[in-house]
Amino acid sequence: MIRIGTSGWRYPEWRDGFYRGVPQRLWLSHLAAHVATIEINGSFYRLQPPSNYQKWAAQTPDDFLFAVKGSRLITHHKRLRHVEDALKTFTSSLALGTKQGPILWQLPSTLRFDEAVLRDFLAMLPPGRHALEPRHESFRTDAYFDVLRAHNVAHVVSDAPTFPCIEAVTADFAYVRLHGHDELYISSYDDEQLDEWARKIRDWDRDTYVYFDNTMEGAAPRNAEALAQCLDQPLASRT
After folding, report:
1. What is the pLDDT of residues 212-226, one digit of tens each?
2. Helix axes 219-230, 191-204, angle to 10 degrees
3. Which residues pair with 106 in a beta bridge?
4. Is 20 in contact with 226 (CB distance < 8 Å)?
5. Which of 122, 193, 214, 134 is nearest to 168 (CA)?
6. What is the pTM of this model?
7. How far apart are the first and last CA of the chain?
């Protein structure tokens, strides 16, 4: 199972391109007709009510999947420490039903690897698929990979010019975020770059989620469709 999509969908920059002629209230359903998965970003900035998740799920095809970005209260403010209550509050708000995919935990660039802190955090996570995106070079260590493998948590393979790209597969699924290779959140991926990512995904030979986060000039949906074609994947569910 390979799911390819974008990080978020609410981008005014797409209005005159990908969303040309599409009312804003239909942006999600329009994108979901072209990709097989989307990362929900709003969950990172504030706690979303269950009704929001239910509304988003209703606007997508039957076998669509969402990844959900974990709360920055947990990752950036509390920095993975003393998060029991915040974690319960966040996970209890999720109401995507069968459309629930992985939860993404994006760490701040100033957070260094601490094996004990990470081990305690992963032990608290509820059942389901979880992925961790570190942005500090100190995570490039076998100790980090071993902790993730012990909990079947995926290391996020990120591509960006401003933080480390650490390539490692640590779970029974892989998770990729493509932020723009040359310019963060901007640059489009060319055919050669997409072919190289397609090769890596084939070599991993496991369920894989890929999200294009090069959203600022509208490259993300085009790149998602192109990578799906490289991998002979359906562009999206039509059910």
Report:
1. 999 999 999 999 999
2. 50
3. 133
4. no
5. 134
6. 0.95
7. 17
Residue 140 sits in which domain range? 2-230
Tell me which residues of the chain have a pLDDT lower than 50: 238-239
Answer yes or no: is 236 within a domain.
Answer: no
Identify the three-state secondary structure at position 132. strand
Token pair for residue 146? 């071993």
CATH of the domain at 23: 3.20.20.410
What is the tally of structural domains in the chain? Answer: 1
How does pLDDT run across 37-55, given as a tens digit for each residue? Answer: 999 999 999 999 999 999 9
Find where tokens 């929001």 sit. Answer: 52
The closest alpha carbon to 164, from 153, 155, 151, 173, belongs to 155
> Contact at 8 Å (CB) between 66 and 96?
yes
Cα–Cα nearest to 9, from 60, 47, 51, 50: 60
Whole-angstrom distance, CA of residue 170 vs CA of residue 157: 10
Alpha-carbon gap, residue 220 to 187, rounded angstroms: 9
